[in-house]
Amino acid sequence: MHQLVTTALDAQDYRRATQLIKQWRKTAPKDPLMLLSIGRLQEGTLQWDAAEKTYLTFLKRVNNPKLMGQARTGLKRVQQAREANRQEALNEAKAVLGSEEPGLLVIMPPEDAKRAAMGLADVLRIDPYMARLQLPKRGLRLQRTGSIGEMEYYGKALQDAGIPTICSTIDALKTVDIFQIKHFRAVVPQPVVACQSPSGQMGSMKFEWSEVTQIVRAQLPVLAQINAKGPWGKPKRKEQVQEYAQVIDLHMHGRKIILRVCDLTYEFRNSMALVPDQTNLTPSRIRWNGLLQNITRETDCPLLEDFTNFGQGALEMIPLLPYIPIHLDINQRKASAWDTAFQIYTTLIFRQAAV
Predict the structure, then answer these.
(1) Does one domain contain both 203 and 336?
(2) Are residues 46 and 195 in the same domain?
(3) Is the dihedral of CA 206, 208, 213, 217 positive or negative?
(4) Is the pLDDT of residue 331 over 80?
(5) Alpha carbons 158 and 116: distance in angstroms, whole number
(6) What is the CATH number of the domain that holds 142?
(7) Helix axes 2-10, 14-27, angle to 10 degrees
(8) Quick one: pLDDT band at residue 97, thresholds 50, 70, 90?
């Protein structure tokens, strides 16, 4: 039977080989040569993953050096063929018009973490242990940056492995209009805000609280350079967190805009009263908390507060991306990757919810 199957496989007659193996399985189900032939059949029918698994199983069960050599040779062929197939698919994705635009790939928590970790390791060619650490348990994770064609290729491969993904060009994220709220003139029954448009023009806007479809809250570190002592007491400049900016983004999909308010840029002196018995001596922190309470009371929509984990994972990749306007005038002495990471996070979520 082994010779008959081998002859069929050599002739690439996979239909006959399949029929013969079915007969073989009935007459000699434990014959190790049958497992080797199954691997060759799977290899010939381009079932790379199945063939790899079969050859590995064969190597665990058989101690015959000659047969083990055949299995190792088959395993090497499978791995080389699969890699060549992937490279061809990646080259095709990159060849599509517009695929060279800068983009990014974000992954989300999978339903089956064990399967997803193996898939992530296989697709990105990383250690399975590292893959488990990279899978987010909640929220988003910026996984990779590069051309959008490449990102979409990896995104599809990860989705096939059970990992939800989002791909986007950088230019697409820039299309979301963000208005910076300077202060509230009224909160109820209809909110009215003084705000700055994306182009820098000042004006006012009325809206309904029911138009707010989701809210994103975050803390952004404000960095400063300080003098410190280095090795052997030599002076050096050191970056240190000076304070944290509290930022709230109100997503309004009906108007296709985001209204952004920040405690460090909010004009408390020009604002309507935000807490009872407010005076000029009422601390800004108490007024800010009053604004938060007003927003929470008047809105009934999802509140997203998972930015910090996203930001920590994105910091190393931010310098690889083209410039992204952040629409946040907090007068950082040095450009902060945290600000850019937040801009990516909020606009990604906005566009994802709009799909």
Answers:
(1) yes
(2) no
(3) positive
(4) no
(5) 8
(6) 3.30.1390.10
(7) 170
(8) low
